[in-house]
Amino acid sequence: MTDKIIRFFKIIHAIQARPGISAKELANICETTDRTIYRDLRLLDHIAPVTNEGYGRGYRFIGNFSMYPLNFTEQEALVFSMLPSIIDSSKLPSDFDSAYNKVMATHATEKSRHKDIIENITEIIQMGTPAYREQNDNFLYPIIQASLSQTTIDTVYHTQSRNKTTARKIDPYFLVPREQRFYVIGYCHLKGEVRTFRLSRFRKVELTNKSFHKGDFTISQYLKNTWSIERGEELISFKVKFSAEVARYVKEEEMFVRPKMTDLPDGGLLFEVTISREREFLNWVYQYGPAAEILEPKAIRDKVKVQLEQWMDKYIERTYIR
């Protein structure tokens, strides 16, 4: 999610600088695919008046929409704002004051517009509420803001597995969508390591005045061999046979790992993938019911057999009581 928002800003700045720019050129600037750019432009259309005037004419903004990419950090803005008090104004050109005022006004405008864009994006993204809570505070905006500005956040977080709430300082590196939920991946000062936090379990999120750096952290390495969001210590290699009736749907799935898929003579599909934890992958396989057969590893195939026998015991041998 953070990468997408940064890409949005790159697209906006590129269109502003080069009206008529093509999707392919935007893809090169953002280091992504044409298909991703088309998706991004459809979303941006909700928050910025971007238009395509026809084949070969590229993208431009309607009316007077613009952003001013000064890219000042808060520290840079503070230093620049102190200039008049630390330099000899008598040695400056006569137009310095008006130029200085214009730069500071531009920074304020840019900051306000960036804030409006992030707020509009968070309004577009709709999230559910955990069943056990009457309402869910939406901390999406401050977390996106903190991630973009690389600012540490003060939080109160509920750990569901231990049913415990703790105060933590977190450096939010990335915001990751998984299975209709958002997760924050970042450095936890309390635990002294990078952790994964479910967004709906935050009870408080406030920005601090402390900045952070990601160092050599990469999200691709952190989530390597991860089926969805849960990480594990050992690698498990799966072979699953999907029947012909669902094979085309499996091929259409959007995945975070790269499986090997082999078409079978009967129209079915042999699906091979290596991941670091089984639970999320098995839940995905279960949705296909008897159209999916786990061939390997044998230990997990046997485990599924036992589970099926337990289900049979509940649904067939017992009498249902209202």
From TrEMBL:
<feature type="domain" description="WYL">
    <location>
        <begin position="140"/>
        <end position="206"/>
    </location>
</feature>
<protein>
    <submittedName>
        <fullName>Transcriptional regulator</fullName>
    </submittedName>
</protein>
<dbReference type="InterPro" id="IPR057727">
    <property type="entry name" value="WCX_dom"/>
</dbReference>
<feature type="domain" description="WCX">
    <location>
        <begin position="235"/>
        <end position="311"/>
    </location>
</feature>
<dbReference type="InterPro" id="IPR026881">
    <property type="entry name" value="WYL_dom"/>
</dbReference>
<dbReference type="Pfam" id="PF13280">
    <property type="entry name" value="WYL"/>
</dbReference>
<dbReference type="InterPro" id="IPR036388">
    <property type="entry name" value="WH-like_DNA-bd_sf"/>
</dbReference>
<dbReference type="InterPro" id="IPR028349">
    <property type="entry name" value="PafC-like"/>
</dbReference>
<dbReference type="Pfam" id="PF25583">
    <property type="entry name" value="WCX"/>
</dbReference>
<dbReference type="InterPro" id="IPR051534">
    <property type="entry name" value="CBASS_pafABC_assoc_protein"/>
</dbReference>
